[in-house]
């Protein structure tokens, strides 16, 4: 007779080849936010993946693992190639639940459900083609969406036990730091902006650059924006980075905006920033945005995606029209002249306390317990 395990194990199907991005931050947050050790968290990644961030988690690897692709055919082929190894891994190591996170893992989640394996899919993306996700929801695949805005985007009605809304999470330590003091706007005071995220085209860092360029010269001179984030290995990201650097030089904005590369010191960066800025369109539920708000830093972000559920416009930040440099310029001008004045740092922090890793992990634990109530025999 097989021995019965007392500790259950979840395999997080991510498939990424590089250690950056919000999904991995969320999985690490869930693992550290768990109040008890009754679930072990393991990552399933591409064979090229090298873990470089903390906390580290145990990993399993596959050469065919895929996180994202704009081609549905490529996603399906990668899933078909990955499935036999994944099934063997479950049998050999006794994983109780597959938790799929990326677009590349969605077909694997569907396959697991057909095999009656406990599975959960968390959708971390705003896809342009929504039919696949609605079909997955109709099939009964247990699904998590990040915000009410995401549910509206996909046309999926949240239903307990089938499709639930659970936020991304922010590490508990962000709620423990000293809250920043806020200085009043003054004609000679600099506005220090922090942007955090990968240097990829959909993040729209070019919109921030253009908004700063369109400020009147005297206002432009008072802005210092620093964007922190890695340049992924793909060709388009590298080209976008070069385009940004060329635009900075071409418009003589070296003192107003710089792209500083990756950093492990997000909390320190936020502590010396006045505002956080997020120019991307349809950001699902930005972990960096949550980190900023938890640190008591107000945010400027597009009125799209999960931002509309995370920011209380005029209180914890200000929203501007997506893809509109003039709208962002006007927001910056309103901050510079004191017309836009958010609530206190303490109020901003409390607005996202329910999205702490401990709180979100508790929601997931309840869901895990319903999906996989009994450990797989060892």
Short description:
This protein is α/β, with parallel strands linked by helices and 378 residues long. The protein contains 14 helices and 13 strands.
Q: Helix and strand succession?
A: EHEEHEHEHEHEEHHEHEHEHEHEHHH
How many domain units? 2
Please identify which CATH superfamily of the largest domain we are dealing with.
Glycogen Phosphorylase B
Q: What's the story with the biggest beta sheet?
A: 7 strands, parallel
- Fraction in helix: 25-40%
Q: Please state the average pLDDT score.
A: 92
Kindly report the spatial arrangement of strands forming the biggest sheet: 3-2-1-4-5-6-7
So what's the CATH class of the largest domain? Alpha Beta
The CATH topology of the largest domain is: Rossmann fold
Which percent range describes the beta-strand content?
15-25%
The CATH level-2 architecture of the largest domain is identified as 3-Layer(aba) Sandwich
Supply Rg. Answer: 21 Å
Terminal CA distance reads: 10 Å
Total count of helical runs of at least 4 residues: 14
User: Which regions have little confidence, pLDDT < 50, spanning 5+ residues?
Assistant: none
Q: Which structural class best describes the helix and strand composition?
A: alpha/beta
Shape: globular
Got a strand count? 13
Blueprint (SSEs and pairs):
Blueprint: E1 8-13, H1 22-33, E2 39-46, E3 59-62, H2 72-93, E4 97-100, H3 106-114, E5 119-122, H4 131-138, E6 143-145, H5 148-154, E7 163-165, E8 191-196, H6 205-213, H7 217-220, E9 223-228, H8 235-250, E10 257-261, H9 266-271, E11 275-278, H10 287-294, E12 299-302, H11 307-310, E13 317-320, H12 325-336, H13 345-350, H14 357-371
Parallel strand pairs: 1-2, 1-4, 2-3, 4-5, 5-6, 6-7, 8-9, 8-11, 9-10, 11-12, 12-13
């Amino acid at each position: 007779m097989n021995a019965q395990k007392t500790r259950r194990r979840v395999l997080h199907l991510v498939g990424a080849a590089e250690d950056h991005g919000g999904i991995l931050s969320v999985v690490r947050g869930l693992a550290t936010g768990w109040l008890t050790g009754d679930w072990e968290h393991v990552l399933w990644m591409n064979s090229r993946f090298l873990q470089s961030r903390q906390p580290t988690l145990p990993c399993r690897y596959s050469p065919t693992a895929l996180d994202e692709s704009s081609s549905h055919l490529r996603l399906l082929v990668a899933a078909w190639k990955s499935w036999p190894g994944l099934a063997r891994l479950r049998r050999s190591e006794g994983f109780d639940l597959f938790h799929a996170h990326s677009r590349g893992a969605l077909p694997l989640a569907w396959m697991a459900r057909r095999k009656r394996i406990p599975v959960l899919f968390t959708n971390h993306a705003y896809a342009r083609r929504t039919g696949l996700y609605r079909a997955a929801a109709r099939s009964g695949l247990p699904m998590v969406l990040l915000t009410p805005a995401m549910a509206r985007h996909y046309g999926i009605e949240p239903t307990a036990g089938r499709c639930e809304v659970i936020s991304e999470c922010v590490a508990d330590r962000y709620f423990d730091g000293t809250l920043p003091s806020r200085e009043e706007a003054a004609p000679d005071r600099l506005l220090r902006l922090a942007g955090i995220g990968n240097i990829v085209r959909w993040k729209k860092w070019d919109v921030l650059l253009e908004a700063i360029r369109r400020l009147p010269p005297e206002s432009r001179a008072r802005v210092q924006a620093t964007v922190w984030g890695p340049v992924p290995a793909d060709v388009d990201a590298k080209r976008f980075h070069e385009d940004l650097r060329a635009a900075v030089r071409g418009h003589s904005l070296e003192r107003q905006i710089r792209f500083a590369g990756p950093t492990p010191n997000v909390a320190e960066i936020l502590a010396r920033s006045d505002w956080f800025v997020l120019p991307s369109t349809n950001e699902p539920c930005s972990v960096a945005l949550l980190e900023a708000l938890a640190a008591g830093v107000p945010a400027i972000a597009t009125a799209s995606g999960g931002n509309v559920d995370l920011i209380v416009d005029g209180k914890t930040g200000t929203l501007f029209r997506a893809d509109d440099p003039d709208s962002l310029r006007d927001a910056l001008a309103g901050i510079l002249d004191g017309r836009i004045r958010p609530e206190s740092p303490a109020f901003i922090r409390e607005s996202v306390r329910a999205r702490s890793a401990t709180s979100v992990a508790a929601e997931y634990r309840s869901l895990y317990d319903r999906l996989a109530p009994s450990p797989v025999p060892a």
